[in-house]
Write a structure and sequence with these properties.
This protein has 199 residues and is of the alpha+beta class. 35% of the residues are buried. Helix 1 runs antiparallel to helix 4. The protein has a 6-stranded mixed sheet with strand order 2-1-3-10-5-8. Strand 6 and strand 7 form a beta hairpin. The model has no long low-confidence stretch (mean pLDDT 95). Bound molecules: fe (ii) ion.
Amino acid sequence: MSVVDELLLAFRSYLQSRSDPVLKHFIEGFGWSMDARTLAPHDLAVVSYLRALDRSGNGAEEVLLNRLLDAEDSLHWAQTYNIADFGGDFLQKYGWVELFGTRGHFASEEMAGGFLLLGPGVHYPDHHHVAEEIYIPLTDGSLWSKDAQPFLPRWSGEIIHHPSNIRHAMRTEDHPLVALYLWRGGPLAQKSIISGRMQ
Ligand SMILES: [Fe+2]
């Protein structure tokens, strides 16, 4: 079994171990048996922050994070934004990998899931999209805003739900953010709309 297969198993096990009703409803009935796609590994500058994390701890989030660390060199890291969106600094400290979905390592038209990385000192401004979304940080202390409300610190394992088209934003301070994400119920490869900006 490849490290990417192991990561999918860990991703699924982690989600199924959680009892949160919103998450349970979100993943209910999802077909986890997906065909693998051949995706070449693709590195990004932001992955260096993932590599620098230590493997301390043995909670459920750390177990999943360790599987991500095992697989990092085999994953196709990607970006949706370009330099015109949030500038060049942002692109050095931002990236994601789609583990499964319409373009990820495993094929699904039903739901997309993967991991978002942000380096320290990043502001990911307000954006929104049609798909409903769940984020679960795997690191502590990132700051999150939903529906133009003040930023609040969030901790590893918290479940953050963004209904369709609700604007949301994230900030990091001294530490990077690694977060699991799920998208469902909208175009799964949509580029997020930057809220308040003319398209
Ligand atoms: Fe989002």
